[in-house]
């Protein structure tokens, strides 16, 4: 099969490599000439995706994958087109369709009868039918559901482990019509492999959800659930702080019963998905008070962590504070909606002088993010924002001037911080 993958980002490129590994002829289209050049050289354009480098090199060397900036031309030669173009939302949750619109218009220019078009980017419910179908029809002169197949099939993977997630999770598909859904199911069955999972209600594989709208809602719902769950856990943690209770012991006890699945609290909820898609859901359903409250609760956690720091430290005016971790989660070089920005902002508002260190980032990269790199200053307080593995080994010997440590991820070893006030969110303070 000839496949075109539109947008070779942290999801699109691994998808293209996966499709090529199944023996298909894949062309990746991207507007970034640097990305296209690197892919054609068999070099991964971004670090951190497990096993992407060798898989990419193999696919390119064997002639099954190439990249281009000519999207319409690549689409014209394809039997299936998969779009994984970024879609952003503003602070109010309103989607910015700019990049997606541009990509869709390019796809429409090259669209030919009999082609399958699949959108994998997370979308508000109704977008595939009411926005993309008319746009594709207008630009191609073809009719969706009659001349070409159109489905929504959300990506459900995490960066850093895309290939394993592709095997582990069912692939959800929702078609514009029955024939489109059938084409989508057949396509994904030909490009993916699935692990056996006896605990699922249906065999692991490609699941037809019956409509594009159902598939759109499924992605929003599963991500919003996580945000709401974490918001509840954070509320429990804040109460536990006041009551002198270790909330993690409580959560572990609750989750020993099969009907409780409480997530872990923490200093921030970051990344491209969990902080974003609940707001996209709210754009569809503005009366969802539970979703809105959880999003607000999670967004407030960086400021709450700084408040806990000030309670133990005293006046933060002029205090030099080290924020450990710019990444939104440990081991991943990505700062999308990272808590580092909220923590640094709250520290600055309190008059502190915040510095940032992260083992995955150079000083120049941190400065480009608007953060002040740590250069060995004599800091007197520290805040753990990301759960990098390195921080489990960090101690007072590494930062001898620290009087107060706020561990927002429960990763530090209390035995390594003698003499310092170590604060863990949702746990009694140990000094």
Question: Secondary-structure map with pairings?
Answer:
Elements: E1 2-6, H1 12-21, E2 25-29, H2 33-40, H3 52-61, E3 65-68, H4 71-76, E4 80-83, E5 88-89, E6 95-96, H5 98-110, E7 116-119, H6 127-140, E8 149-152, H7 162-168, E9 171-175, H8 178-191, E10 206-208, H9 212-243, H10 247-254, H11 277-284, H12 289-299, H13 301-313, E11 320-324, H14 339-349, E12 353-357, H15 363-368, E13 381-384, E14 404-407, E15 421-424
Parallel strand pairs: 1-2, 1-4, 2-3, 4-7, 7-8, 9-10, 11-12, 11-13, 13-14, 14-15
Antiparallel strand pairs: 5-6, 8-9
If you had to describe this structure to a student in words, what would you say it looks like?
The protein has 431 residues and is an alpha/beta fold. The protein is built from 15 helices and 15 strands. Strands 3-2-1-4-7-8-9-10 form an 8-stranded mixed β-sheet, sandwiched between helices. Strands 12-11-13-14-15 form a 5-stranded parallel β-sheet, with helices on one face. A hairpin with a 5-residue loop joins strand 5 (88-89) and strand 6. Helix 9 packs across helix 12. The relative contact order is 0.09. The mean pLDDT is 96.
Please describe the biggest sheet, giving its number of strands, its sense, and whether it closes into a barrel: 8 strands, mixed
Low-confidence stretches: none
- Please report the total strand number as a whole number: 15
- Radius of gyration over alpha carbons? 24 Å
Spatially, the strands of the biggest sheet line up as 3-2-1-4-7-8-9-10
Helix content: 25-40%
- Residue-averaged pLDDT, rounded? 96
* Structural class computed from helices and strand pairing: alpha/beta
Task: Tell me the span between the first and last alpha carbons.
Answer: 63 Å
């Amino acid at each position: 099969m000839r496949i075109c993958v539109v947008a070779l980002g942290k999801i699109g490129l691994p998808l293209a490599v996966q499709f090529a590994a199944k023996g298909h002829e894949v062309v990746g289209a991207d507007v970034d000439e640097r990305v296209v050049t690197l892919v054609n050289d068999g070099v991964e354009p971004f670090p951190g995706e497990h096993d992407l480098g060798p898989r990419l090199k193999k696919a390119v060397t064997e002639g099954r994958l190439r990249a281009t900036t000519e999207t319409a031309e690549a689409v014209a030669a394809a039997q299936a087109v998969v779009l994984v173009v970024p879609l952003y939302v503003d602070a109010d949750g309103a989607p910015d369709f700019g990049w997606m619109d541009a990509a869709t218009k390019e796809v429409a220019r090259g669209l030919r009868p009999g082609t399958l078009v699949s959108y994998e980017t997370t979308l508000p419910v109704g977008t595939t039918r009411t926005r993309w179908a008319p746009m594709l029809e207008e630009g191609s002169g073809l009719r969706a559901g009659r001349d070409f197949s159109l489905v929504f099939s959300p990506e459900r993977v995490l960066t850093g482990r895309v290939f394993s997630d592709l095997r582990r999770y069912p692939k959800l598909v929702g078609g514009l019509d029955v024939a489109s859904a059938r084409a989508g199911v057949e396509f994904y069955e030909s490009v993916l492999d699935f692990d056996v999972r006896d605990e699922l209600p249906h065999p692991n594989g490609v699941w037809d959800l019956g409509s594009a709208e159902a598939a759109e809602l499924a992605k929003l719902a599963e991500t919003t659930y996580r945000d709401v769950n974490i918001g509840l856990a954070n509320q429990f943690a804040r109460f536990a702080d006041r009551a002198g209770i270790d909330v993690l012991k409580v959560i572990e006890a609750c989750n020993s019963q099969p009907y409780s699945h409480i997530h872990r609290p923490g200093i921030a909820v970051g990344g491209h998905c969990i902080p974003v898609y609940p707001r996209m859901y709210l754009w569809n359903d503005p009366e969802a008070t539970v979703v809105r409250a959880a999003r607000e609760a999670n967004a407030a956690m960086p400021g709450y962590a700084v408040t806990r720091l000030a309670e133990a430290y005293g006046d933060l005016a002029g205090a030099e504070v080290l924020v450990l971790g710019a990444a939104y989660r440990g081991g991943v070089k990505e700062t999308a909606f990272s808590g580092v920005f909220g923590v640094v902002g709250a520290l600055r508002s309190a008059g502190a002088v915040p510095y940032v260190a992260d083992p995955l980032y150079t000083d120049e990269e941190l400065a480009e993010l608007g953060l002040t790199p740590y250069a060995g200053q004599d800091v007197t307080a520290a805040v753990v924002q990301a759960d990098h593995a390195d921080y489990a080994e960090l101690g007072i010997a590494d930062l001898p001037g620290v009087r107060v440590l706020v561990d927002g991820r429960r990763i530090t070893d209390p035995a390594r911080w003698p003499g310092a006030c170590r604060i863990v969110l949702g746990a009694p303070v140990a000094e």
